[in-house]
Amino acid sequence: MICNGVKEILLDYPKYLEIARNGRQHIIQNFNWLKITEEYEKIILSTIEKFKNANFNFKNIISIIMDQCLMLMW
Question: How buried is residue 46: exposed, middle or buried, by Cβ count under 10 Å (0-12/13-18/19+)?
Fold first, then answer.
C-alpha cells in the first residue's frame, strides 16, 4: 500500500535519498530536450519517407497523418 511505502521512506532517510537520486537520474536520462528532439526528428523523417512512398490519394494521406498523431500521443 502507498501508506506503507510513505512510512518506510519517512523512517529511513538514506533510503529516501537513494530513491530521490535514482528518480532524478531516470528523469535526466529519459526526459531531456535532446531525447525529445531526437524522437520528434524520427517521427518527422518517418513521415517524410511515408509521403515519398505513398500513393497520393486522400485515404493514404489521412492514414499517414493519423499514424503520426498517434505516435506523438504515446
Answer: middle
